[in-house]
Please model this.
Amino acid sequence: MEVFQLFISAIFVNNIVLAKYLGMCPYLGCYKERGVALGMGGAVVFFTIMATLCTWYIQKFLLTPFGLDYLQTIAFILVIASLVQFVEMFLKKMVPPLYAALGIFLPLITTNCAVMGVAILVQREAYDLKTSLLYAVAASAGFLLALILMAGLRERLDVCRVPKAMMGTPIALITAGLMSLAFMAFKGMIP
Amino acid sequence: MVTVSVLTLLGLGFTAATLLALASRVFHVKEDPRVEAVMDALPGANCGGCGYAGCEGYAIAVVNDPAVAASLCVAGSSEVSIAVGELTDKTVAAAEPQLSFRRCDKLAGKVGMRYEYHGMPSCAAATLLMGGVDICSWSCLGFGDCIQVCPFDAMTLKNGLVYVNPSKCTGCGACIKACPRNSLELIPVRARVTISCATKDKLRAVMDVCEAGCINCGKCSKSCPAKAISSVNNRIEIDHKKCLSYGSSCEELCVKNCSRHILRTNCPPPTSSQSIETPPAQASTDNSIQANP
Model:
């Protein structure tokens, strides 16, 4: 039951994009097609889990024992960036089809704050490893959901008559705001 | 405190760097350096005129596959083909430079409207509604789908018709794929005679909708001594190879015999700024962009 509550909370109530406002760049950026959004979302899910795992161990065995908690942000940036680079090289050699599918998103993920945000949120909530990984899955699934919904909406917007001054980013920001409002309706679900 | 944090980060960074350096060795993927060289030689417009998905796709294919010709890049001039040929050890046959040509002159033909259109401003959308806004089913609708896809900024819109700028058009054919009406076609830059109508209708059906439409009378194909004009799928087409190889001794009989003024002599291809200063009388029948829009 607790796991279920964690999932509902991370996907709908405290959606990482729509409630915590992390990962705005890919959310608003260039994802106008659902296929591309799915690819990017999938890559984020994969890397959030990997990054959470690595940073959890870094925190547990390096930062906390030596009292270096204040280095958390910069240490996590370092770890996540190297991790993405490493996995990129690994995929290129070992799994070329997966590299061809995710390749263009990998450099974007290096600086994705949703991945970083999950790693830090997990530490703030002081989750154990299992809960951390579950939270990472749920939060990145929420990211994926927001990305796909946004891409679907923007596909529809493409065939609408949008006032000239509103075309592009302005209407995307308005859409994002309305989506956030809609997701606020979930707030009452979890006490 | 400073020492500890600096040392920790230094250690962390050093470990990551070592890992990445090792990984780049272990997971090194050999890439053909020629692919990059070919990519540099190509224009990089990713127009798809070669038939591959972008310049990178073509570069990989031309390097790895001996059957792929080096002259497929239509956007680059013959210099690009020669450079690619040198890089890949392939012989290059000189390609005839082409450009896009609009087979419609609905302004001269005074083509009327079927209905007032307030939908999405795109030719593809407008064509879906009763076969387009114009009474003629073969006309250039003038919403500019081709302008949007042109990677070389060679097309402009004026008075509801699309104009091709011959000095910018590379003949990549992206606009021809985008046009839902088949009103655009590729012709050789040297072409002597052009056809300014794309209709597949005949006689009365054409006369009723357009004053400058082809009624398929067949006078041109009968008069052509080179037998270069024929009706393909109910539409007159010029075989430009036959036409050019016959030379000018035919005195352009097809142009003289065309009662509807659809076949026109092509003005010489633009070589300098001189071509832009076409006299207005000629420019109105010309497919190219006018001097001062």
